[in-house]
Design goal:
Helix content: over 70%
Structural class: mainly alpha
Number of strands: 0
Oligomer: single chain
Strand content: under 5%
Order of helices and strands: HHHHHH
Largest sheet: none
Shape: elongated
Radius of gyration: 16 Å
Length: about 150
C-alpha cells in the first residue's frame, strides 16, 4: 500500500485545527462568544463538507479521459460530488440541532462513499486511509458540540 503523501497528511490534519479549536471554544466560552464559536464551526463544516464532494468532482473529471469507466460510473461520481455541498447548504439553513445532526450525517455519508469509491478504484487507497482519522475527529468534535449545546 502506498504511504499517505506528506503534503496531504500535513494539510489534512492541519484542516482539523478549526474543528478542534472551535469545538473546545464552545466548552470554554459562554454567551455571544460561544455562539460565535458555533457559527464559525458550522460554517467551516459547510466548507469542508463541500470540499469533500469536490474531491469526487475532480477525480471524476480526471477519469473522463480514461476509457475504462462507464457512463453510469461518471453519473454516479459527478452526481455524488455535488451532494455534500447541497447537504452543507441545507444544514446551514436549519436550527442548531438539525444543523449539527445534518453535518454528522453528511460527514458520515461522505466517509462511507469514500470507502466505497476506494474499493471501486476511484480514489487512491492512501486517500481513504487518510480520511478515516480525519473523519473520526470531525465527527467527535461535532458530537461533543451537539451534546454540550443540548444537555
Amino acid at each position: 500500500m502506498v504511504a499517505i503523501p506528506a503534503p496531504a497528511k500535513t494539510l489534512g490534519f492541519g484542516g482539523l485545527i478549526p474543528f478542534v479549536v472551535t469545538s473546545a471554544s464552545v466548552f470554554v466560552f459562554n454567551g455571544n462568544d460561544q455562539l460565535m464559536a458555533l457559527d464559525i464551526m458550522l460554517h467551516y463544516s459547510a466548507v469542508i463538507l463541500s470540499f469533500l464532494g469536490a474531491v469526487h468532482w475532480g477525480a471524476g473529471l480526471a477519469s473522463l479521459t480514461d476509457t475504462s469507466g462507464t457512463r453510469s460510473d461518471t453519473w454516479i461520481r459527478l452526481g455524488w460530488s455535488v451532494t455534500p455541498a447541497l447537504v452543507a447548504w441545507l444544514a446551514i439553513q436549519m436550527n442548531l440541532s438539525a444543523c449539527i445532526l445534518t453535518f454528522i450525517l453528511g460527514f458520515t455519508g461522505t466517509f462511507i462513499f469514500d470507502v466505497w469509491s476506494g474499493k471501486k478504484g476511484w480514489l487512491p487507497n492512501w486517500y481513504v486511509k487518510l480520511r478515516k482519522p480525519l473523519s473520526l475527529i470531525v465527527l467527535i468534535c461535532l458530537a461533543l458540540v451537539f451534546i454540550k449545546t443540548h444537555f
